Amino acid sequence: MAVGMLQRISSLFPSHTHPLTLVSDPDRLLAGEALMAELTRRGFQVIQEDDPVLMRHRMEEARPFTADHPIILTTTGPLEEIPYDLYQDAYRIRLSLHQYFPNLAYPVLQTLSPDQIEILESRPQPVQPLSRQKTINYLLQEVFNADPVSLSQPYALIAWLNEYHHRQSPLPELLRTSLVNLLKEFSEYREWNIDLLIKDAQAFRDFIQNQWQLSIVQSLSGKQVKEASAGYVIPFSRDPQLQDLVPSLVRQGTIQPLRITNQKESPKWAQPGVTMIDIRLQRLKTLLENIGNQLTEIQSGQMGWNTWQNLAREWAETNSLMAQTELAIQPEQKTLFQKYISNLDTLFTYWLLKNYTALGAQRLPNPHHVHHTPHYLAYLHNLGNLRKAVLLVMDCLSLADWQVISSVWTKRHADWRMNTETLLAQIPTITSISRYALISGLRPADFPGGIDPSIPEARAWELFWSREGFSEDTCKVLPLYYDRQIDQQPELQDPRVNFWCLIDDTLDKLAHNATLGAADQQSSLRLWLDPAHEQNSLALENQLDWYLDHDFSVFIASDHGHVEATGFGQPSEGLLAQTRGKRARIYLDRLAALRVQDAFADTILWDNDGLLLEQMSALMPIKREAFTTAGEVVVTHGGVSMDEVIVPFIQITKERK
């Protein structure tokens, strides 16, 4: 990265110099991943907390402040609002975007995310002040590589959209609106819903897949598809530059290859996007190739959170396909899959050790951790983007599970739009800790009563919203009981409640009852989604649909994922362990944990991550192994694998007729 803002800000925080630093950071410049990682590397503990009570608690917990244990306390407001006993002895810094980008319009700059600011600082800066519109145009080109003139042809716009959605760094509304208006001036896009294609990755994929199918039908039949009736606007068959895009569109999953009977009948340009075998096997082949390439890149350089998110999605899709027992998966593919599991677990654990603490402190404007979720909902409410909300916590929902669920729900609810992001679960990834963090908005170190909270989840949810200024009768937690003869509908439709937290433990039960491993769990999941099965997901879907029709913003979150693991024995530590999970054992005595680790060498001791209690340690297997009878196969959770830690966070919206 070129010398610029990152280096200049870093220079304000020398190591082993100031025990306490107060930072006024209204533009969240310290929230960028690279900068947070650098501050963590220098030994700083960064505290970002707007609630004055929690802020005071965290600061007292962090004492004593020393040059060897330095603290950074950030606020989006003036430093003078910090309590005087902290203010008087602290080193004080005021940060602003305008300090580092004086020639760009400040209100436009404020719409960028921290990671986008880090991209901006590496670009050549204008030498003269730019107007509001010229700043927008500059940012579109320099940060998002979106030059409207360059995107005037369909092949260029499709290539850009494909890469844009893969990066998962959405355009701020101001910039998106400007780009849409500029692109609409080109006659080629008269019939395109460009705004939707930029906003919604699934809408873009559906659009391209539909156009690809029409192109293949036309090329095989030799008949011209009527553009007016079919809405056919992408001439794959007539545009060589579009044809050149097909391999990359297939590789990134934007185009799913179409199955045909005779590949020789298709033109050469179409062959990357057609197959004579089961399209799922073709997709698996592509995914394994992609993952192999990404592993090579990880081993040769640094990898950020956005890259891990993309890899986690592809890995989840791979997991889902590998668990489908009816597929004729080749032995060499199974061997490759097992090799990738080992490589990914090692590399992801190493990345977590370096970055988990820093990401745990980055709460807004985008959540990174499950305990950021309630804060994000409150943030949206304060922006006026949310009036009433439902947070459905699907206990044990993995990204692979969501691959299956979303594909079924998309077909069943054509008017639903599901935007999927990812978060980091709380480590150790056990329900009692990660789900409580998700619902309460608290780090485990802040749990009332410590590792075994003294107040229930329902009360923690009420307390969070009461701190935001809402009365307790407008906030409610309700476990869902679809497997019992209980009519919960009157309670679920209580008109007094504006902030629901619904808990569905169906997937957790499916995982723990899967005695035959991951394939068993995935098979049970598909049965649950089947309306013909006695216990199915329709009641849940209908309830979500009711909320959407009654102006609720609907979100789905997971506390952790799950893995298939094989037993490698159980420790005999008597009463020393606080919890005895199959993938995590928790200790309040670090020496006791180390003694157990001596007998189980293939484990990692996780502690002092800035989120857990200071005296708490978690012992977890490094490989896909479990603290249970040697050789026993289980589907469980608690550890640090990508499948357990990276979880989906979904918003469902409904198209209005």
What are the main properties of this structure?
alpha/beta, 44% helix, six-stranded mixed sheet, 5 domains, four-stranded parallel sheet, 657 residues, single chain
Give an account of the 3D structure.
- The chain has 657 residues and is an alpha/beta fold.
- It folds into five domains: 1-142, no CATH class; 144-276, no CATH class; 281-352; 364-563 and 644-654, no CATH class; 564-641, no CATH class.
- Helices cover 44% and strands 14% of the residues.
- It has 27 helices and 19 strands.
- The strands form five sheets. Strands 8-19-11-7-10-9 form a six-stranded mixed beta sheet, with helices on both faces. Strands 2-3-1-4 form a four-stranded parallel beta sheet, with helices on both faces. It has a four-stranded antiparallel beta sheet with strand order 13-14-16-15, covered by helices on one side.
- Strand 13 and strand 14 form a beta hairpin.
- It is globular and about 80 Å long.
- The model is unreliable at 225-230 (pLDDT under 50).
Concise account of the structure shown:
The protein is α/β, with parallel strands linked by helices. The chain has a six-stranded mixed sheet with strand order 8-19-11-7-10-9, with helices on both faces.
Outline the fold blueprint.
Layout: H1 5-10, E1 20-24, H2 33-41, E2 45-48, H3 52-62, E3 71-75, H4 84-87, E4 91-94, H5 97-100, H6 106-109, H7 114-120, H8 132-142, H9 154-167, H10 173-183, H11 194-199, H12 201-221, H13 227-230, H14 240-251, E5 258-259, E6 274-275, H15 279-300, H16 305-322, H17 331-360, H18 373-383, E7 388-394, H19 399-412, E8 416-424, H20 431-440, H21 457-467, E9 475-479, H22 489-492, E10 499-504, H23 506-512, H24 518-529, H25 538-549, E11 552-557, E12 563-567, E13 577-580, E14 585-587, H26 590-599, E15 603-607, E16 617-621, E17 625-626, E18 633-636, H27 642-645, E19 646-654
Parallel strand pairs: 1-3, 1-4, 2-3, 5-6, 7-10, 7-11, 9-10, 12-17
Antiparallel strand pairs: 8-19, 11-19, 12-18, 13-14, 14-16, 15-16
Helix pairs in contact: 2-17, 8-10, 9-14, 15-16, 15-17, 16-19, 19-24, 23-24
